[in-house]
Amino acid sequence: MHRTAPSRRGFLFATAGAGAALGLAAGPARAGGRHRPFGRHGSPSARRTPKTLYVDPHGRGDFTSVQAAVTAAAGSGWTLVLAPGTYRETVTVDATRTDATWIGASEDPRDTVIVFDNAAGTPRPDGSGTYGTSGSATTTVQADGFTAHRITFANDWLRADHPDWTGTQAVALKAQGDRTAFHHCRFLGHQDTLYADTRALGHFARQYYAHCHVEGDVDFVFGRATAVYEDCHFRTLDRTDLAAAPYGFVFAPSTAGANPRGYLVTRSRVSSEAPDGHYKLARPWVPSSDTTARPMLTVRETHLGTGIDAAAPYADMRADHPWQEQRFREYRNTGPGAAVTVPENRPQLSRAEAAAHTRAAYLGDWRP
User: Fold this and answer.
1) Are residues 293 and 325 in contact, defined by beta-carbon separation less than 8 angstroms?
2) What is the DSSP letter of 251?
3) Which of 39, 102, 248, 363 could link 148 by a cystine bridge, Cβ 3.0 to 4.6 Å?
4) CA distance linking residue 176 with residue 187, whole number of Å
């Protein structure tokens, strides 16, 4: 991750103005105050359903940590209501805990934050090596049918604190399940913020992100899921450690070659803290574990701000997998970053082709 303020780790105590610059500041709690931390979602004494658990870092719920509640919620169909606060921990929802729902009790996702600071290069406590990219995730969701509302998922590891490290990937959330949905959530980090992935190469997991905020710098939305991002905001961060562009890449899909659908971005916007033209919209990720991948990204009816390099919005991750051979397309985008100045660098869908790139086409029989 890259430094965008004197100390991003201080975000929870920032003022509203500083919080806007950091992207991580919590707003005032709106879940009913200290007497009703779960707001309209019930309480341990007025449980909405037998499978509803309440989490509050101040001890007013069933558990004080999210992972403790997840561990208790074995099987399918549990709901976790999270009171406003900061949950500094790592959380894993394994594949057996299907159809879970997490609800941030506040109307503002900035009030309920799950955050930790592992990076790919962070040594494991048991001495078995480093965490790697996947192991760096603050929250990992492997189960199908997971839904989250109004929660911030963050990784506040800073490159500036470890200038000699090479494992600088630091994931806020890794989602691997089918029928995974996030509504009004925030994903905050720097490199590899949101890992929209699958459990296995042949598992074409469908994911839906609606009215979400994602920010970062290098490949900060990446993975091989079939993922729809609708009415979302992608925010590229400034960098003080680089003297020249590009500062990074918004998307880095790694769609399996056999999967007919990868990432779809629709009715969204991309803004930037960085100087004009210092970011690429995307580059293809063909991982060593799947050299047959054909990354797919469609961006349609989305506003691309000045931070995107309009003349050359795509780049290669590796020379032997050029972006031109992948499945990158655009349709009716607006804004200075969408200007078609070099047509061969901006592959466009026809109107007939665009009809196959919709939320319904990507998600099939699932209606999140």
Assistant:
1) no
2) E
3) 102
4) 16
DSSP string, 155-171: E---GGG-TT-S-----
**Under 8 Å between Cβ of 293 and 255:** yes
Neighbouring residues of 106: CB distance < 8 A, sequence distance ≥ 6: 29, 30, 31, 39, 84, 112, 150
Widest CA span in the chain: 63
Residues annotated as part of the active site:
192, 219
Whole-number pLDDT of residue 27: 45
**Cα–Cα distance list, 180 to 24, 54, 102, 244 (Å):** 24, 21, 12, 37
Q: Is the pLDDT of residue 348 over 90?
A: yes
Interior/surface letters 16-38, b for 16+ CB within 10 angstroms, e for the rest: eeebebbbbbbeebebbeeeebb
Q: What's the pTM value of the predicted model, to 2 decimals?
A: 0.93
- In 3D space, the residue among 279, 240, 278 whose CA is nearest the CA of residue 159 turns out to be 240
Mean pLDDT of 183-203: 97
E strand or H helix at 304: strand 303-304
172 vs 35 pLDDT, higher one: 172
Classified as helix, coil or strand, 271 is: strand
Strand order in the sheet with 279-282: 91-93, 139-141, 173-175, 194-196, 221-223, 248-253, 279-282
Is 354:331 a contact under the CB 8 Å cutoff? yes
DSSP assignment string, 107-167: SSGGGEEEEE---TTPBPTTSS-B-HHHHT-SEEE-STT-EEES-EEEE---GGG-TT-S-
213-216 and 186-188 strand pairing: parallel
Residues with Cβ within 8 Å of 200's Cβ and at least 6 positions away in sequence, in order, are: none
Query: How far is Cα 288 from Cα 283, in angstroms, rounded to an integer?
Result: 16
- Nearest CA-CA partner of 66 in 91, 98, 100: 91
